[in-house]
From TrEMBL:
DNA-binding region, residue intervals: 37-56
Organism: Pseudarthrobacter defluvii
Keyword DNA-binding: yes
PROSITE patterns on file: HTH_TETR_2
Keywords: DNA-binding, Transcription, Transcription regulation
Domain HTH tetR-type, chain residue ranges per copy: 14-74
Record's protein name: AcrR family transcriptional regulator
Length: 196
């Protein structure tokens, strides 16, 4: 795509900063972190690459912003609290959290692995995990769970993390849903033990 075509093309993901974040996530999900360049993000978003630099300044700032954005998108997709308030099931809400947008999950795993090589990403990756644990804690509380909810949420997220990896590795949705239902039953047993 020529520079003039990039300036006049309609962005695939909408406009502005969020479109660039979505494009960054997609580029990393498809090409890995080494494929993340201003040019690749701009091309995916259908804009001029100077717009990427304008919004983020540095590649590291783009990475950190995309990591935060991706967790917000995943957590927003789960609708855990809404499921509790509207009579939905915990399993359905968690399945949405896990499988709604696999590209978001691939991007996040890429960042987690990269944090092992680049210590400056350790803080944003830790914040990613804390945001998931916080969302699960709120979801557990909405479903009537009591006690040390954060410990249970962290344990639950560890199971979910593993199931997402399995899904990305090719395990079928039905098998993931069945395993998730088993995790849910364990949570219900724990909740029942608390109230009994």
């Amino acid at each position: 795509m020529t520079a003039s075509a990039a300036r006049t093309a309609t962005p695939k993901y909408g406009k502005g900063r969020e479109a660039l974040l979505r494009a960054a996530v997609d580029v990393v999900a498809q090409k890995g972190l080494r494929g993340l360049t201003y040019r690749a993000v701009a091309e995916a978003a259908g804009v001029n690459n100077s717009l990427v630099a304008h919004h983020f300044g540095t590649r590291d700032a783009l990475i950190e912003a995309a990591l935060l954005w991706s967790s917000e998108q995943s957590i927003g997709a789960s609708r855990l609290r809404e499921a509790a308030e509207n009579g939905g099931t915990f399993t359905e809400a968690l399945l949405e959290l896990l499988l709604e947008d696999p590209g978001l999950q691939v991007f996040q795993y890429e960042m987690i692995l990269e944090a092992r090589r680049r210590p400056e990403l350790a803080g944003p990756v830790a914040a990613l995990y804390e945001s998931y644990v916080g969302a699960l804690s709120e979801g557990l509380e909405a479903f009537g769970f009591q006690g040390d909810v954060r410990v249970v949420a962290r344990s639950l997220f560890a199971a979910l993390d593993g199931l997402v990896l399995q899904y990305l590795a090719g395990v079928g949705r039905e098998e993931i849903a069945a395993a998730l239902e088993e995790v849910h039953q364990a949570v219900l047993l724990r909740r029942g033990a608390q109230s009994g």
